[in-house]
Amino acid sequence: MLDKNTNKFTLWVLAWPIFIELFLQFLLGAVDTLMVSRISDDAVAVVGFSNQLFQAMTTLFMTVASGAGILIAQKLGSFRTGDARTIGIMAVSATTIIGLACSVILFAMPEAIASMLQLPEHLLPLAGTYISIVGGGMILIAMMATMSTVIRNTGNTRGPMYVAIGMNIIHVIMNYGFIFGAFGFPQWGLTGVAISTVVSRLLAVLLLLYMFLRSFEYRIKWKEFRVFDRPLFGEILKIGWPLGINMSCWVFTQLIIYSFIATLGAAELAARTYMNTLESFCFLLGSSIAMAAQIQIAHLFGAGRIREAYRSAYRALGIGAIYVVVNAFILYVFGKQLLGLFTDDKTIVAIGASLLGMNLILQPGKMLNMALGNSLNAVGDTRFTMYISLGSMWLVATGLSYVLGIHMGWGLIGIYSCMIADEYLRGVLSFFRWRGQKHLRKAEQVEPVSHQAQPMEPIPAQA
Description:
The protein is mostly helical. The protein has helices at 11-36, 41-77, 81-108, 110-116, 124-135, 138-153, 158-180, 189-212, 230-264, 266-302, 306-342, 346-353, 356-378, 382-407, 411-436, 438-444.
């Protein structure tokens, strides 16, 4: 008998709420950047730099959250709902503790951290204010990320979407008030933007907590947050620690690359921040399809529907590639005008515009890498994606970026060239790994956990 909730795990049903949620997150970042640009380009550079730092800290708790999300989808696919529920509870408890520790560190020494990461000295006072306030709320980011991940992997991708809508509306209104002194708000500039960010995230956490407690068949009770199942937590870490290292590679190499760009000057740093915002828009739909495919494939894999899981990866890749190429072309055509919405500085606009053609090459590589990398993660092959990330991100994306961009003086053009090479290298390696079907063939030899799970079909020969 098939899972009665199978329809919740189709690619489109999963993907469109994720897309709207990601779009609203993009809107939050774009509105932040646009509004902060009315303060100064220096403030934009600080926000972009700080966000890279926050992403680096985020990997500490996303190790647990990501591993838990994949396992929850697998357990639900194999009808082990009790295990899925316990995994969700443990993930939220563990990541909240980690998030609290991050909050204390960032609140206590923001300028010292920014200085250590080579932020230009004249930006340190602004960075100290922004990092201490927003970074002091890292516990909120930890709770948001984990609860959203758990809720999405139960098949409910709409819930986090609704929360994102509310959070964005509140954030935009408060941003406008604090920056321009509207609605009776004090005109606090970047400090107000930071406060707005923390308040909107706090409200989002409260809504997500309400949804999380009701995400499974039986409502989660407060006393259950003390539950700790060692074997299940071991399963989380088995999948999660390579994911954590993989994510750490990305954010820390990006942070180092940002520090390289910072040495080029404030104009280059601001241009990269603006371009990052526009590039995020390019990849929104592709990213949502890749994330939906991971949930779908993990559920199919847990249910023993191996053939469907194998084909789903290629379907997601094909659909996603079409969208990202179209979006990247639109950005290539209108990118200069869009950059002009953020800043009047002709130097910054010229630097950003010089990268638009390279972005057209970059985006398909990102889709190839993310679609097949996520597919490998969904079936538990997380060590492979970790190994290729360790090699490619550090040697190609970071090491060569320094050689070409800084040492040889190619600047942002050299750094972007290395980012493109990194994405395609990891994407091609992931393609051949998925085509080899190593983890899928192993699963054929294991009996489904539940007698209700669909018998496995023979997996097709390599294409």
